[in-house]
Amino acid sequence: MKIKEVPQDDIKTFKGFGTKAIYAVDENGQYTRIPTNGWEMEEVVLRDVVDDFAKLAEESKSRVTKGQTSPIEYYMNKYFMDLPALAAGMGLAKWRVKRHFSPGVFNKLNDKMLQRYADFFNIELAELYRFSKINS
Amino acid sequence: MNSIRNFDHQHFAHCETGVMSALLKYSGLELSEPMVFGLSGTICFAYLPFLKMGNMPLVSYRMFPGHIVKKFPQRIGVEYFRKTYKDQDLAMAELDDFVEKGRLVGLQTSAYFTTYFPPEMRFQFNAHNIIIIGKEGDEYLVSDPVFDHIERIKTADLKKARFARGLSAPKGLVHYPLKSPDAVDLKKLIRKSIKKTVHMMLYAPLPWIGIKGINHLSRHILKLARKQNPKYTRHFLGNIVRMQEEIGTGGGGFRFMYAAFLQEAHSALDLPVLKEASEKMTEVGDQWRMLALECAKIVKNKEAKVELPQIAQFLRRCGDSEKQIYRMLKTVR
């Protein structure tokens, strides 16, 4: 890639976060490291994934208010995770996390476990157990 | 304020090579980022269909994360300090100690808890690398090689980031060079590393690694057509592009960085074959970028007819061109 071919598409993800470095050749064929503010194509593929998670999060949010699932599933989707990733990040078995999705089980969780989830999602404890009140 | 003096933050393309290059430079051994990348033999291709991340098979353009910090210093004869912790508070206390003494240390962290990342990029990725250069109140000053300026992170967040769980958990890893030699035998190291890379890319005895891996992926893409699941296909192709072009690759799935290494190797060894290989590698990088463009078009235009055989063919051609380069590099010994 030549320096003038390096895309500078000013993508949304990077706005306000600076640039990233990339290797390209100058007119004399010498490699240099130059900053770029992104390529539209990387934005496209990232958005595809992020939007998918956003959709899932919306769905689970409405299911929480209907009492069909627990806020844990909502926050999992909100922070771009699937079940294996959440379980691994929490250090729990997948079946346990899945069990915590059930509102009945979730309501009986002790504060220690809830706090672990809250720490992991980087939210206040209240945002977990008063989720329906806050979001309705 | 505690901060380490006479350290210039540098903006690198990749976190692990960047941290290594910066730490070595500070300890008196100057090796550029492409040099670290090349000498550590980090270029690779792996398609591991059985290892799923976010329901997608792993596609990687480099050796597994942590490879450089673990192996590279020893290989070039640098005495190196590495330590992991069980006790989180001890880990943070010792970090404060390092900062106070003015020692520059590298840390392994999780991108998920790295608060200064763009929110859309805070995925569960446990092998990010940063350098701590100081502390101000409750905030650490971070020289993150993939960002263009000094970042800050709160103590509580850094603690979480250092002790994230899951795949390749950092376990609070802290590392720094103890003693660097004044100079290394660059010529010998270059020859050795090229030999190793060529061997891995051409002759790895596994179907998922090197050129074989590229062809394996290409065959798998053909199979996607039979599945008739446009969403899965879209995510699958998107996944390839993300692994190749997202932050920390230097573009073209590290191929440009390797080309830069070959160029530096040429000026050290003065072998014409290295110059030619470097130019060819640049072309291959461009080819990979073209592939990324084609895949991204499919992701963008959801209704368009997907020409999977064409993508597979494209990928195979990337593999073929790379194969020629490694064949050329075989003569370097």
Structural description of this entry:
The complex is a heterodimer of chains A (136) and B (333). Chain A is mainly alpha-helical and 136 residues long. Chain A contains 8 helices and 2 strands; from the N terminus they run ββαααααααα. A two-stranded antiparallel sheet of chain A has the order 1-2. In chain A, helix 1 packs antiparallel against helix 2 (71-78) and helix 3 (83-90) packs across helix 4 (94-100). The radius of gyration of chain B is 21 Å and the shape is globular. In chain B, helix 1 (15-26) crosses helix 2, helix 2 crosses helix 9 (255-269) and helix 6 (186-203) runs antiparallel to helix 11. Chain B has helices spanning 15-26, 33-39, 67-75, 88-101, 155-162, 186-203, 210-227, 230-245, 255-269, 272-300, 308-329, and strands at residues 2-3, 43-53, 56-62, 79-83, 105-109, 128-136, 139-143, 151-154, 174-179. Chain B is an alpha+beta fold. In chain B, a hairpin with a 7-residue loop joins strand 7 (139-143) and strand 8 (151-154). The chains are: A mainly alpha (136), B alpha+beta (333).
What is this entry, summarized?
The complex is a heterodimer of chains A (136) and B (333). By secondary structure, chain A is mostly helical. Chain A has helices at residues 40-65, 71-78, 83-90, 94-100, 103-108, 111-121, 125-129, 131-135, and strands spanning 20-25, 31-36.
Question: How would you describe this structure in keywords?
Answer:
heterodimer, A: mainly alpha, B: 333 residues, two-stranded antiparallel sheet, 11 helices, 50% helix, globular
* Helix-strand sequence of chain A: EEHHHHHHHH
Strand/helix succession of chain B = EHHEEHEHEEEEHEHHHHHH
Quick check: average pLDDT of chain A? 91
Termini Cα gap of chain A: 52 Å
Number of helices of chain A: 8
How much helical structure, as a percent, in the residues of chain A?
55-70%
Strand arrangement in the largest pleated sheet of chain A: 1-2
Give the number of helices of chain B. Answer: 11
Specify which chain pair forms the largest interface: A-B, 40 and 57 residues
Helix content of chain B: 40-55%
Total count of strands of chain B? 9
Question: What's the multimeric state?
Answer: heterodimer
- Please state roughly what percent of the residues of chain B sit in beta strands, choosing from under 5%, 5-15%, 15-25%, 25-35%, 35-45% or over 45%: 15-25%
Main sheet of chain B, how many strands, which sense, barrel? 7 strands, antiparallel
Mean pLDDT of chain B: 91
